[in-house]
Automatic annotation (TrEMBL):
<feature type="compositionally biased region" description="Basic and acidic residues">
    <location>
        <begin position="165"/>
        <end position="174"/>
    </location>
</feature>
<feature type="transmembrane region" description="Helical">
    <location>
        <begin position="58"/>
        <end position="83"/>
    </location>
</feature>
<feature type="transmembrane region" description="Helical">
    <location>
        <begin position="120"/>
        <end position="142"/>
    </location>
</feature>
<protein>
    <submittedName>
        <fullName>Uncharacterized protein</fullName>
    </submittedName>
</protein>
<keyword id="KW-0472">Membrane</keyword>
<keyword id="KW-1133">Transmembrane helix</keyword>
<feature type="transmembrane region" description="Helical">
    <location>
        <begin position="26"/>
        <end position="46"/>
    </location>
</feature>
<keyword id="KW-0812">Transmembrane</keyword>
<feature type="region of interest" description="Disordered">
    <location>
        <begin position="165"/>
        <end position="208"/>
    </location>
</feature>
């Protein structure tokens, strides 16, 4: 984002116009920075595992990678690096810089080489961000689909209980009888007191 901003400033200050080409990619980068900052703060605030709705993640990732595609296309297609040209020397090895010879060469016009290199670096980073957010977008689509299917199953189970018992699931759970209390058997009581009578007789015979 900083590289694109510097490129826009240098381009507008020295050549004027056409600064939107490098200004357009700033928009998805700003959206990505704002959303990821919010997501980090949200995760740190809710440490008990409260998840963010996958639909919000899906929407944010869409607003990042979708405009990033045309931003890269325009920034690369109209970049300053397309104006680069090799140096042409005279037969005596002299270098002339004019409108006919070497006007767009690096010795005569070093600024466009600086701008072009900055555009290449910025677009590489923007492409990495695009790939990352597109992957997160696909994962968010899968999570959203699973979340919707789970809500449908829960809604269907709730409707089945309401149709079968003519009451809500909460009312049905409250009217259920409590589980039976645990009552130990007589044999288990003897075992707890010190073993079965047979084992006690065997101990008497053994130590008599």
């Amino acid at each position: 984002m900083i590289i694109f901003a510097v490129t826009v400033h240098q381009s507008k200050e020295n050549y004027g116009g056409n600064d939107w080409v490098d200004g357009f990619p700033i928009a998805p980068l700003v959206i990505s920075w704002i959303f990821n900052s919010f997501l980090i703060l949200f995760t740190l605030y809710y440490r008990q595992g409260r998840p963010i709705h996958p639909g919000w993640v899906l929407t944010a990732d869409l607003f990042v990678w979708a405009p990033a595609v045309p931003a890269i296309v325009f920034s690369v297609g109209l970049g300053w690096f397309w104006w680069w040209q090799p140096v042409e020397l005279e037969f005596r090895g002299e270098l002339f810089c004019n409108n006919t010879y070497n006007f767009w060469s690096e010795p005569c016009n070093p600024l466009i080489y600086k701008l072009g290199k900055m555009e290449i670096a910025a677009n590489v980073f923007l492409a990495l961000i695009l790939i990352m957010h597109f992957y997160l977008f696909v994962m968010a689509c899968i999570k959203t689909h699973k979340w919707r299917m789970q809500k449908k199953r829960e809604g269907a189970a709730r409707r089945n209980i309401e149709l079968q018992y003519h009451r809500s699931p909460e009312e049905h759970a409250r009217n259920q009888p409590p589980p039976p209390a645990y009552t130990p058997s007589a044999g288990s009581e003897r075992d707890l007191e010190g073993g079965s009578p047979i084992s006690q007789d065997e101990n008497v015979v053994k130590y008599a």
